Known about the structure:
The complex is a heteropentamer of chains A (501), B (323), C (328), D (350) and E (295).
Chain A: E1 3-7, H1 22-31, E2 33-34, E3 36-38, E4 44-46, E5 49-56, E6 59-64, H2 78-87, E7 105-112, E8 115-120, H3 127-131, E9 135-136, H4 139-142, E10 162-168, E11 172-177, E12 190-195, H5 199-207, E13 213-214, H6 219-226, E14 231-246, E15 256-257, H7 272-281, H8 284-291, E16 296-298, H9 321-330, E17 338-344, H10 351-364, E18 368-375, H11 377-385, E19 391-396, H12 404-411, H13 431-441, H14 446-461, E20 467-479, E21 482-484, E22 497-499
Parallel strand pairs in A: 1-12, 1-13, 17-18, 17-19
Antiparallel strand pairs in A: 2-9, 3-4, 5-6, 6-8, 7-8, 10-11, 11-12, 13-20, 14-19, 14-20, 15-17, 16-20, 21-22
Helix pairs in contact in A: 7-9, 12-13, 13-14
Chain C: E1 4-17, E2 20-33, E3 37-42, H1 48-56, E4 63-72, E5 75-76, H2 82-88, E6 93-96, H3 100-103, H4 110-121, H5 126-139, H6 145-148, H7 158-170, E7 176-180, H8 188-205, E8 208-212, H9 216-222, E9 225-230, E10 233-239, H10 240-245, H11 250-258, E11 306-308, E12 311-313
Parallel strand pairs in C: 3-8, 3-9, 6-7, 7-8
Antiparallel strand pairs in C: 1-2, 1-4, 4-5, 9-10, 10-12, 11-12
Helix pairs in contact in C: 4-5, 5-7, 7-8
Chain D: E1 6-15, H1 21-28, E2 38-48, E3 53-58, H2 64-71, E4 79-84, E5 87-88, H3 94-103, E6 104-107, H4 121-131, H5 140-150, H6 167-179, E7 185-189, H7 197-214, E8 217-221, H8 225-231, E9 234-239, E10 242-248, H9 249-255, H10 259-266, H11 306-310, E11 316-319, E12 322-324, H12 328-331
Helix pairs in contact in D: 4-5, 4-6, 5-6, 6-7
Domain ABC transmembrane type-1 (chain B): 94-311
Protein name (chain B): ABC transporter permease subunit
Pfam family, one (chain B): BPD_transp_1
Amino acid sequence: xxxxxxxxxxxSSIDPQFSRTGNNQMTSTMFFDRLVNFDENLQVSPGLAExxxxxxxxxxxxxLREGVTFHDGSPFTAxxxxxxxxxxxxxxxxxxxxxxxxxxxxxxxxVDDLTVKITTNVPNPALMEDIGRVFIxxxxxAEGKTSEDFNAPATxxxxxxxxxxEWRVGETLTMHANEAYWGTVPEFxxxxxxxxxxxxxxxxxxxxxxxxxxxxxxxQDVTRLEGTDGINVFSTPSGRVIYLGLSMRGDQAPxxxxxxxxxxxxxxxxxxxxxKAISLMIDRQLIVDRILGGSGVPAGQLVPDALGGHNPDVAxxxxxxxxxxxxxxxxxxPDGFGLTLYSSNDRFPGDGDIVQAxxxxxxxxxxxxxxVEALPYSVYSKAASAGDYGAFVFSLGSSTPTSAPNxxxxxxxxxxxxxxxxxxxxxxxxxxxxxxxADALQEFDEEARLTKLRDATALVFEETPIVPLYWQKVxxxxxxxxxxxxxxxxQTLPQKITSTE
Amino acid sequence: xxxxxxxxxxQAILVLLITSLVVFLGVYAIGDPxxxxxxxxxxxxxxxxxxxxxxxxxxxxxxxxxFISSAVQGDFGRSFVYNRPALDVIFERLPATLELVxxxxxxxxxxxxxxxxxxxxKPRSLTDESIMTGSILGFSLPNFxxxxxxxxxxxxxxxxxxxxxxxxxxxxxxxxxSYATWDGFVHLILPAxxxxxxxxxxxxxxxxxxxxxxxxxxxxxxARARGIGEGRILFVHVLKTILIPIVTxxxxxFGSLIAFAVVTETIFAWPGVGKLIIDSIKxxxxxxxxxxxxxxxxxxxxxxxxxxxxxxxxxxxxxxxxQ
Amino acid sequence: MTEALLEVRxxxxxxxxxxxxxxxxxxxxxxxxxxxxxxLVGESGSxxxxxxxSLLGLVDPPGRVIEGEIRFHGEDLRAASPRRLRDLRGNRxxxxxxxxxMTLNPVLRIGTQMIETVQAHARVSKAEARAMARxxxxxxxIPHPDERIDAYPHEFSGGMRQRVAIAIALLHKPDLIIADExxxxxxxxxxxxxxxEMQALTRDMGLGMIxxxxxxxxxxxxxxxxxxMYAGRIVERGSVDEVLDTPRHPYTRGLIDSLPMxxxxxxxxxxxxxxxxxxxxxxEGCPFRPRCAxxxxxxxxxxxxxxxxxxxxxxxxxxxxxxxxxxx
Amino acid sequence: xxxxxxxxSNVTRHFRRxxxxxxxxxxxxxxxxxxxxxxxxxGVSLSIxxxxxxxLVGESGCxxxxxxxxxxxxxxxxxxxVSREGRDIATLRGAEERAMRLAxxxxxxxxxSSLNPRxxxxxxxxxxxxxxxxxERRDVRATVEGLMAQVGLDPAMIDRYPHQFSGGQRQRIxxxxxxxxxxxxxxxxxxxxxxxxxxxxxVINLLVKLRQDLSLTLLFISHDLSVVRxxxxxxxxMYLGRVVETAPTDRIFAAARHPYTQALLEExxxxxxxxxxxxxxKGEIPSPxxxxxxxxxHPRCPxxxxxxxxxxxxxxxxxxxHAVACHLDGGTxxxxxxxxxxxxxxxxxx
Amino acid sequence: MSLLRPxxxxxxxxxxxxxxxxxxxxxxICVVLVxxxxxxxxxxxQNPYDLTEIDFFDAKLPPMSEGYTGMTYVLGTDGQGRDMxxxxxxxxxxxxxxxxxxxxxxxxxxxxxxxxxxxxxxxIDTFVMRxxxxxxxxxxxxxALMILVVFGQGVDKVILALxxxxxxxxxxxxxxxxxxEAGKEYAEAAxxxxxxxxxxxxxxxxxxxxxxxxVIGTIQVASAIAAEATLSFLGIGLPITEPSLGLLIANGYxxxxxxxxxxxxxxxxxxxxxxxxxxxxGDRLREILNPRLAQ
Lengths: 501, 323, 328, 350, 295
Ligand SMILES: Nc1ncnc2c1ncn2[C@@H]1O[C@H](COP(=O)(O)OP(=O)(O)OP(=O)(O)O)[C@@H](O)[C@H]1O
Ligand SMILES: Nc1ncnc2c1ncn2[C@@H]1O[C@H](COP(=O)(O)OP(=O)(O)OP(=O)(O)O)[C@@H](O)[C@H]1O
Ligand SMILES: [Mg+2]
Ligand SMILES: [Mg+2]
């Protein structure tokens, strides 16, 4: 192989519409294209659709790129787009379907070979962002095939920069470059991706020269790799925010006690002053420096500055133990109260360590830390969603150009019917914020929408609905002479790896 | 013999039934697959759709009944993650694990028995002491640590051996095996050694103890009294006698090897079923977990059966009883 | 008189244990001629079996032959190399162990064990060795030797296993057989069968034999000469008739008296008072002294062997030649 | 006359593994044959009077120990009954059963394996009386010391472990353990086989003394005929699961009638018989798994007739206290003449 | 026959140990380790479990560094700023507790079931042995995860998981020996004397099954400690704020490649020393208790 990549996680299928987890999208991006491209800051640019226009609020016309061919040589046409968009929400047994992406689409029709007309059931200014996430597959190759069939080259026919050779489950994914690619033909022809889930093993593989590139370099190894001859580390901030959630769910918070260790009568986290106080106890920079070896950026809101909706005025809280104590006293807890902190231990780098560090900091800030528990994600996630934890560390990644979906899911008032606040595990609720966000989401003007989002962000973080800690940085380790063009997407794509000379 | 096998089959069915129930309940208790399968920004509608398509909305007894009734027909359900028949997912990876496990079993016999014999013949000699001391190293340090050391030394520092993946494989008698190519073989060395270290230690200890306890027996003395050479006494009389406990223990250990392969496979990125199972447990991919455990338990039952048959081959006294 | 096949002089085999030295065999003299059966009797633990093992150089550590001379056909076995000893064992000198149930390897076929014995000493093909083994089985009266040779030891009855042991002993037509209580647990008809086998062998093949037993009746009927052991030493020896009819050592006498006789019914048996001395803590001088009715201060010294080479005893107060003279 | 102490009537005992479900299925399907049956006892009848010493003789594996265990109530019978003082022991329950159990004790063949190597003498002997309330906890030591003295062991050795005793002493521990629960019936299963003559004499003397002092009833299992002759009032001879002859001791030794008994007597080793020429018995000892038809002894019997090969001889009284199972002489065997039957004659007849 | 003064078990073992210099040294080290584990709170410079006592500023310091608070960290600090020496002492305490408790509990359960199976035979035997098969087939991780879910995290839960997995070994081993012992005449004699079955099993047969139990026991204690480390490595072991030796190794392992060797090498060496000594003592014990091998 011309290029060997050690990758931490493996896709569950090559069918690009089977699951939209980050892993699967990453793999799909190698073999398939979408109607639009998302740049490194997740902003939209033309892809297989060269241009698009609104006839009215619910009718869109898409002009498709000309002269694009599939891996098998057949031309790409409007029929493939229609087929792909229609299939997107009906892949059988999909664990993470693209349903939401096409939920606003009422109908898709091919006007001619290179024109598609889309009608939506509600006005959706973000339609291209939505359907733009769906990968386009070849109708001829895929019709009548199952997701499983995609695991072989005969069905996995796309228009992407690489052509699938073989997927050995749990082991390797091999491919070669698509010489007829409509965009830039990738530099490396033969590429092998090895799946090495263990961090240390992946690093060792790079050190021993078995692979040329690895992704997800664990933060603690960054310094070591940087200091090794022949190896470079490439880092970028990601859109993933790590935060501390303080549950406002019931009248009593789980595992929150008075100083004697008895359950506390009321839920202190319902008081914004308490939440703010806790935020003030945390030295975000210290966590980033000491635990992550610099692999993070202190956060005070949901998305980093590269994404739409980031409000530069909402700064991360700086440590101020005095003020924190004052706020606690004001809220009626001059001597603090007791709490247990929870976290996963296998979800993102350093998660077990961070929660311990938080424990230390809250203890210094005047709270009584009864314990710190780090659990496997499989166990943790269920309990966290069920509201079993009072104070817990969680993360949320961003795969959209703006903060809107995340604001909606994380901080919007929980409403099962309307499908809002799906990840509002702390059950924060503010009418003012809900209204501001709804207003922003209906704004068709790009600039005005972003301004409204920034204002909504400022509004909601006044109340410290969650305690943002930091945005994660991601690292790649590469052999000398290679460079990767990654961006916020956290993706390790062979087409984005180039030689420096 | 027929009776013997029939009896085991009846018992096996019962064991498998209980196992499936326990695992089913266990995985259910651990967590909610939806939490893990769905991407972070999934909506309620998507959630409901997935729950529906994976049959996760049914009450647990119904889910179990559905599982059992199709399992009887050989259908163990489809993996939540891969959307492929759970058995396919497992059998695709099982050969790699079996290759690894078998290789380390062979390694442990080939290295362990001779060392154990040498140590046992002259107990308390210098050779014995060094072999025994070395063997303690084998099982006192955690497996993952030993694995890392092997990688550090042989892959990173010395650069002699590859440390990740399975390498080139070839087919031999229709099986994909690492033995078919040199590259594959080299890839096998480190992981197999890692897995074998503890077993080697165990075999050494068993063999040594066996030799030490067999040598004073009357039949050894009698063999000497008949003028039989020491070599024959050791390799025929003593070895055949002590193979029984060794075979028993290795039969048990086969199971723990497969279990420990989880760690080795993770560290060496070996595409085996161990890595699959730990991922599946983490992803709460219940059909795969249940099918995996059932396959392993069934394998275990077969191994025990083989061990019992081996027993009777090794010890004629048992032959009458076992059959 | 027969020529000496085996001569043992002053044999001492001691076990060094952490608690002290066990003098299991402590100065034993023996002579066995061609065609001669020597009966060796004595109390349990007196060193009979260890004597046998010492002759073959098979004493297990921590035991060791400390001193003494073992001459077989005039050759000093103690000085023999391990190789030479291995050549002799099973070939010129054979031993039948105390409990043949335990001595055959349970996991190997009878045939395998016989063939390996043949091949250990003779350059013959496997087929020839097998034929020899089969003939030997036939010779000791195992029916259908052709089939039985492939059986495992556990498939044989006790009596049959005993006969296998004899057959193995005979494979190479040895000059000397050491038979260690091979009939202890058998009923008399089967015992008689084995004894007749042994008798025929000594008579027809002229081999010498040491027959270790505690059954005075068997020794009386089978052996030509006998020796009585007590606490590691031979306390009395001579022809069977002499020793049984006119015992000179009080221990021998005590043994004979302990046997229940036809006219004893209703009267208590005469037992030797006391118990055998613990091997680690033997009294000074004559070890039988604490149990002996005739003991005097003289017995505090070590008794030397007195008598002729063919009839001797170790006692300061030997009994008279007529039984009636001895006080009960 | 009252009922005898022990009455064994027509007891049969087969050892046969019970087939389990799988085996039954396989048998039903014709894939397996039923597991082999060992005919350990085959219609044995026997009675023992109170205070009597009965010697039980027979070759190895003929069912002596099995009979002993059945009489002691430790093994159930396949068919037939064992009664103790007129009551069928199989029908006893609860306290009565326990009392019967305790009143019958066995002294085992191998003194070492019948003593727990990890228990002190005081526990070995004292455990049962304490459990059964025969001795108070604090009196146990005294009780044990008393028992030890009774069997001629130095009570000072009360805290020792079995391995610290000699064979004869161990045998006495076994006896003391049995006596500790006040039995009136003792079964000695080859209790002296492994001992050398001087120790053998000690144990026999002890048994005889106990019999006199405590009026014990004894079933004395042995293959040593001189000892049996010395100790027992009556002798029972067994061959392959059946009683072949029973008579008062003197009669057996003077006028045995069954060919097997005669062969046994012929082969008793005696020290007053020197330079004897042993003669070889031909013919295999038949196995209890597959016993021969008719008289079990016929393959080895020099006098076997056609009838012996097909018809089982019943135990017939040759005189009021002498019963024989042999077709000769009208079903009473042939009296032992001076010449007797020599083992040499015992050649297979077919 | 030897009629020497009876020797007590303790003195026999002690004498046996003392005759071997190697075993003596190992035993002394074991005692030292156990004592320092028990008295860890008194010896350790720091309470590594108390979040207010450890300082984040001192994280990842190499051995012999002086920390922010002026304290010298002889063996360095871990990623949280814990003094490694203290963490190891406390960790040893936990590991010993886990290893010994799990070993002993598994031994009790396994022994009881193995004895029952051997003594009673029949369907009980079949049932227990098939159950053993079942247990041996179950991956430790799955058991640990289930227990974690049902009962939560903690030392006691890890012990429970280990016992769950290990008892089967003991059951097998005990059954094998007990089958032989139960056939001996002393067991029959006890039945004849009307001694209740449970008493025969536990009072008579069990003591004679001890020697193999000791061997398996010592090995299982070691493997319980190692297994706990592996569980911690997989993230389903002990609470991270109360690291055991195994957890320290597993944590340190993550930063091995980054050159922070002290975080896993020192606890590794300590674990090695412990297991080493336990095994030497165990080996010797087996020899002492086997009359054939004791010299
Ligand atoms: N390995 C050993 N270590 C210490 N003493 C031993 C050892 N082997 C045997 N002895 C002792 O040697 C003495 C002689 O034993 P030997 O087996 O020769 O007796 P024996 O006369 O054959 O007795 P038996 O009639 O019971 O077979 C005994 O006191 C025994 O305790
Ligand atoms: N539990 C059992 N299962 C199967 N067969 C048995 C059992 N117990 C005894 N037997 C068989 O029953 C027959 C009689 O055995 P028993 O022990 O009563 O003989 P014995 O006369 O006491 O022999 P020995 O003189 O050797 O002690 C033997 O063939 C034996 O193999
Ligand atoms: Mg002996
Ligand atoms: Mg018997």
